[in-house]
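seq:
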Amino acid sequence: MQMFIKIRDVLLPRESNRRRVVRFLWHAVRSKKKFFISRAQKYKYWIKKHEPCKEELEKQKEIRFKFEPKISVIVPVFNTPGKFFIDTLRSVLNQTYSNWELCLVSGRSYAAQLEKKLKDHLKNDNRVRLKFIDDNKGITETLNDAISSAEGEYLTFLYHDEVLAPFALFEVITCINKDFELDFIYTDEDKITGYGNRRYEPHFKPEWSPDTILSCNYISHSTVIKKEIIDAVGGFRQGFDGAEDYDLILRATDRAGKIKRIPKILYHCRDNKGSVTLNSEARENAVTSGKKAVADFLDSKNTYKSHVSDGIVHGTYMVSYDIKSSPEVSIIIPTKDKVEVLKRCISSVLEKTDHPNYKIVVVDNSSEEKKTFDYYRELEANTRITILEYNEAFNYSAINNYAVSGVDSDYIVLLNNDTEVINSGWLTRMLEHAQRKKVGAVGAKLCYPNKTVQHGGVIIGLEELVGHSHRGCSKYDPGYFGRLNIIQNLSAVTAACMMMRREVFEEVGGLDERYSHVFNDIDLCLKMRGKGYLIVYTPYAELYHAEALSRGLDDTPEKMARLRKEVLLFQSCWDKVLKEGDPYYNPNLTHVAEDFSINIGENQ
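struct:
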């Protein structure tokens, strides 16, 4: 069950809307915070606030670390525009961490031109190594040649027209010195205009997400990988041109012991006309190669028979898994009166569910209206449907625990009565993930009847406690870097529509009955994560959800007091998680809205 009122309204005195707006505006002006600015202006402000100034960069050069491994920066060079190459070269030379080598590899036809550029801009820096290869070698062989001669313990790859932040390697070494066992590191990144005079479109990424990486290459170029890992997986492979980095990432992360994200912009991708970013033919080839890389990786795992197809957002992928033996699924729907709401829900399930083996368990919680019981008599004629009675006071957790104890299906779906199925494959699309042994709970994309998003997954820390990803966006919106419409890992999903294996539900003790109305689903997901299970969100299971239609709003003193009690319980139980932040949400994104806008300090 989700919250129906903002936590600040529970913990702070109520005010009229007018007073709240006036107070907010006054605070914004007084504190000089830039709330009402464009995304571009916000990003400029973020850069100024979060990135080191010249004096700080000079101080970084004096810092010595306990462990100072060499990092090999590998740059394949081919017909690079002069200014772009010089920008790339200078971005490495200007690093505040000094134990690096720059491995340039180029075709022989470009030798004279490249050597002249290097002579003009290098001052006998022996950290720069130049290797020439046959011109007919492709990108894969070029990169592997550079890897074979690299001497660093860690490798990073830089495209010949792109740029590292001057503090990039410093931040990487800082991270490594906090955990010497790190095998694979990646960072946030942004784009720069052709001549580098403007930065835009920052991509603030989640921590390592194994399902997300199968949906799209969200890690992209900004990686630092132990050389022994790259050697172990055989480096780059032929046949994946345009997505050779994606193919390497899939295999390297699978071999890596520890993977870490650095939530800082350390890599700048250039949008010049020759890049994959703008070249439509190259982009299509990259998409096709990416699909091949994902399919090949899944085939190599040989765990579940899988299929890879184009995703909802161009350049993303939908991974589907064959379902083993068509298991039975029990769909549990708590309800009380409001029969038209329930009827719409059940009719949609019966009419639009393509998975053949399911049953519906309606749990009546003290209904009183005659038309409700008349409808129940109609339902009882359907062998798929069972009516259970629960005549205690409403407690969402207790009702569902009671229902689960009364069924013997291996798979359970918790479903609100104010939902309506949109696509016929909804149950199949959830079941294909719930059957995976590493997965705890699976959630769906839920939309309001007006076709805006109600739930795209749950983010811990939003709106002072928890919030729904992309709430209020159009259901057709791709979301932040496509995240609304890809299969991905999240910290939690709502129990308005949640599937899990019965054994996992029982392993974590079911729903905590101390949460009678809210946070029970979040608590359940966090308990699963504590046991090492993944939480999966899939946009390919889509339903309408008329939020709070059946239960109503928490808008009376009694309800507010109850909500406050459950808020405090959740805070005490999950204090560490709340302090550490959501691993699937970047700290550079806002915590006062659900739209993935930039955090410029408005929640501090």
